């Protein structure tokens, strides 16, 4: 009887302390919901000119510079990270070293023939691996550590100038421990190389993106015949039918007496165009058909003009 009373009292106390929550689904008012406007992102064309290994790591007697594993790791990681931002068209390039040498010549004409807006020149400047072991009475541990240093230079193809340069370091390590012979023993961890290089490159990617996107998007005239005007770039770059851009006449090229390099003076806006059609199968051969809604250009000197995105 007494047990029954205790149970009853406990049940009443629990019931008194219980909080009842009622969930009410409220249907959203569709008329009051404003869909955010889709931000247009005009993708920049980027080519990774080279990624070299400037360290002595893995440079034995049979070392092949053209197939350096460290350099290829860094190039693949950077390409993957830039592609994931969805703000670039990455162009595959062969023999880019030859192009880079041309870009280093101050005042060289024809930069736009490379096809990219920006070139990235990278190098692994530091790479080291070490293993440390600790042995106690009942346990032992082993720590593998890899540290990598990566340097990046970003070149504006239209001017040949380096607009961004920075070096970053990344660290990756793994530790395993056994106690009285129990536990997993790990051997050589080859994945640490990727992780250390990836950690270093991750510190640079945001700055690469910001420096590229801070520069206005540009395009160039391809042809102007029988009233049909074609410019480079299409759908994959973010160009849509109805988009409008301004047309700029290039400024005069002069030699900067301080640096000895050729530089282009500010250009003059001479009109605006509207996109009527986009075509092409790949980023390399895409084009857009446009028409002038303001101003005009000299059809015989298309190379003296370029198309530029409107200021936001």
Brief rundown of the structure:
With 312 residues, the protein is an alpha+beta fold. The protein folds into two domains: 44-214, Rossmann fold (3-Layer(aba) Sandwich); 218-309, Thrombin, subunit H (Beta Barrel). Helix content is 21%, strand content 38%.
Could you characterize what this model shows?
The structure is a single chain. The chain has helices spanning 2-17, 69-84, 96-103, 191-214; strands at 44-53, 88-90, 118-135, 139-156, 161-179, 218-219, 221-225, 228-232, 244-249, 253-255, 262-264, 268-279, 287-295, 305-309. The protein is α+β, with helices and mostly antiparallel strands and 312 residues long. It has two domains: 44-214, ABC-type transport auxiliary lipoprotein component (Rossmann fold, 3-Layer(aba) Sandwich); 218-309, Thrombin, subunit H, CATH 2.40.10. β3 (118-135) and β4 (139-156) form a beta hairpin. The chain is elongated, with a radius of gyration of 30 Å.
Q: Could you give a short account of the major beta sheet?
A: 7 strands, antiparallel
Q: For the residues shown, what is the average pLDDT? A: 77
- Helicity range: 10-25%
Q: Encode the helix/strand succession as letters.
A: HEHEHEEEHEEEEEEEEE
Span of the ends, CA to CA: 82 Å
CATH superfamily of the largest domain: ABC-type transport auxiliary lipoprotein component
CATH architecture of the largest domain: 3-Layer(aba) Sandwich
By DSSP (H or I, 4+ residues per run), the number of helices equals 4
The shape is elongated
CATH class of the largest domain: Alpha Beta
Strand residue content? 35-45%
Number of domains: 2
Given as residue ranges, the uncertain stretches (5+ residues, pLDDT < 50) are 5-31, 105-114
| Total number of beta strands | 14
Widest β-sheet, arrangement of strands = 6-14-9-12-13-8-7
- Evaluate the radius of gyration: 30 Å
CATH topology of the largest domain: Rossmann fold
Q: Structural class of the secondary elements?
A: alpha+beta
């Amino acid at each position: 009887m007494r047990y029954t009373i205790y149970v009853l009292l406990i049940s009443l106390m629990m019931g008194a302390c219980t909080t009842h929550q009622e969930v009410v689904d409220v249907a959203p008012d569709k008329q009051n919901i404003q869909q955010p406007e889709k931000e247009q992102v005009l993708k920049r064309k980027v080519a990774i000119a080279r990624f070299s290994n400037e360290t002595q790591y893995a440079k034995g007697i049979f070392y092949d510079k053209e197939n350096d594993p460290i350099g290829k790791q860094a190039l693949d990681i950077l390409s993957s990270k830039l592609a994931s931002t969805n703000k670039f068209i990455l162009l595959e390039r062969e023999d880019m070293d030859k192009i880079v040498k041309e870009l280093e010549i101050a005042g060289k004409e024809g930069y736009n023939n490379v096809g990219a807006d920006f070139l990235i020149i990278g190098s692994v400047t530091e790479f080291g691996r070490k293993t440390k072991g600790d042995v106690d009475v009942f346990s032992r541990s082993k720590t593998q550590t890899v540290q990598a240093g990566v340097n990046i230079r970003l070149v504006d193809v239209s001017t040949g100038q380096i607009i961004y340069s920075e070096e970053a370091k990344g660290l990756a390590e793994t530790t395993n421990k056994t106690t009285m012979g129990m536990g997993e023993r790990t051997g050589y961890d080859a994945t640490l190389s990727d992780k250390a290089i990836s950690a270093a490159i991750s510190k640079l990617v945001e700055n690469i993106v910001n420096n590229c996107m801070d520069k206005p998007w540009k395009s160039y005239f391809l042809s102007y015949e029988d009233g049909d005007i074609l410019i480079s770039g299409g759908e994959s770059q973010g160009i849509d039918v109805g988009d409008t851009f301004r047309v700029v006449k290039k400024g005069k090229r002069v030699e900067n007496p301080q640096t000895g390099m050729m530089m282009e003076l500010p250009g003059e806006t001479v009109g605006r165009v509207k996109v009527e059609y986009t075509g092409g199968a790949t980023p390399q051969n895409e084009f857009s058909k446009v028409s002038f809604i303001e101003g005009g250009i000299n059809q015989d000197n298309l190379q003296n003009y370029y198309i530029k995105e409107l200021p936001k």
